[in-house]
Amino acid sequence: MAKRVRLAEVTADNWRAVASLRLAPDQAHLVASNLYSLAESKFDQAARPRAIYAGRRVVGFLMYDVSRGRGKSRKAFIYRFMIDAAHQGKGYGRAALAAALAEIRAIPKIRKVAISYMPDNPVAGPFYASFGFAERGRDEDGEMIAELKL
Ligand SMILES: CC(C)(COP(=O)(O)OP(=O)(O)OC[C@H]1O[C@@H](n2cnc3c(N)ncnc32)[C@H](O)[C@@H]1OP(=O)(O)O)[C@@H](O)C(=O)NCCC(=O)NCCS
Predict the structure, then answer these.
(1) Which residues pair with 51 in a beta bridge?
(2) DSSP 8-state assignment for residue 88
(3) Segment 90-105, tens digit of pLDDT
């Protein structure tokens, strides 16, 4: 039976499991290390780091923040997302993104979610487009930004 995928807060109990997740060597440049992201999240109050569980095992990590959009609306930005190399291609990424979008949709006054990725990432563009994300162009660091209206 397929393992249930869920998001959970990163805590004293699971942060080491998150930090030990790895990408394949040819993917390492696509996302900052989880250790870096966890450190960053301690100094950015808006950051919402999440461990991705498949059953009882930590298989991935994502991080997003929520800021003000136009007027009183709010906007989410998913800026880290990875599934451990040993667990890719099993549907966990798709289930985790669906769970993240469900969590984000529940935020009051949320209108939009954006996601960023390296333009040379062969999987990201089509994968996010399948959720309805539309590419909006590159940011100042050269990363592609895609947006989804909620
Ligand atoms: C992108 C990523 C999060 C997807 O997670 P995953 O668990 O492997 O994805 P899934 O098994 O749910 O598959 C999602 C889609 O991606 C595609 N995909 C996944 N790995 C792939 C690969 N190595 N090559 C080609 N396509 C791939 C699948 O075809 C799938 O499409 P489908 O659901 O229509 O069949 C994961 O591959 C990853 O961590 N990649 C490296 C880091 C990265 O690129 N992060 C995202 C940008 S910041």
Answers:
(1) 8, 61
(2) T
(3) 999 999 999 999 999 9
